[in-house]
Amino acid sequence: xxxxxxxxxxxxxxxxxxxxxxxxxxxxxxxxxxxxxxxxxxxxxxxxxxxxxxxxxxxxxxxxxxxxxxxxxxxxxxxxxxxxxxxxxxxxxxxxxxxxxxxxxxxxxxxxxxxxxxxxxxxxxxxxxxxxxxxxxxxxxxxxxxxxxxxxxxxxxxxxxxxxxxxxxxxxxxxxxxxxxxxxxxxxxxxxxxxxxxxxxxxxxxxxxxxxxxxxxxxxxxxxxxxxxxxxxxxxxxxxxxxxxxxxxxxxxxxxxxxxxxxxxxxxxxxxxxxxxxxxxxxxxxxxxxxxxxxxxx
Length: 298
Description:
This protein has helices at residues 18-33, 41-44, 259-272, and strands spanning 45-49, 54-57, 62-67, 73-77, 80-91, 100-107, 115-121, 130-136, 145-147, 158-164, 168-173, 176-182, 198-205, 225-240, 243-244, 273-276. The protein has 298 residues and is mainly beta. The strands form 2 sheets. An 8-stranded antiparallel sheet has the order 1-4-13-6-7-8-9-16. A hairpin with a 7-residue loop joins β6 and β7 (115-121). α1 crosses α3. Residues 1-16 and 18-37 have low confidence and may be disordered.
């Protein structure tokens, strides 16, 4: 079904419900997204493992990762970043992808690393992908939220984004926020704001846990499995020789969620979230992490 971008002629006292806002957001954001042209994968990324299973094609406009019984594959950004907005179009492994994980994440180095994760957990044909998100600070994670998607992520490319600034981390799918992790260091929760990170992508076998907790194993007769990537757009502070190229005027450095996107975030979480660590009291018998006690923004 085509998406209409028409708007009401009379806007006075017009307050569309969250579903309408949810569907119209690409129209509202389209002029913003079109202003940023993605760079060539040759310029921005290196395929770092997989023995030829990762490939850059179409003059640097397409990157594919493949997985077979012998190995998966992966890439990393040439540059390191400290804060930014990162957009990447991904088309996930189609059909029976059970046991596979396509990952897209930011990560620092060392034993006390920081990390911001998108992981897409494979499925039996016809079953929905699970979008697994997590935030690590100083080597500690355990902040998972999981979602279903409202479309088939294997039929076409969709844009998955991180916004990472001093105030919060926001996960987006096609410009729609699905998760916010706020900086509440004052409450005792560490926040990733001191270590530079690279962007990584990988396709690998995780059939010990990825699909139904490891009950469904990878069907190697379906290999090789392939995920495809386009339009990597890092709008970020680049770190080089310990110095940052970041300009204080970068709009995303202070970007917050306005009331409309806050409503959309709540709508997505109400309808598509399937796991939230902040609701898992059995996992935290001594009390939920401090950030889980934050009130919901209006």
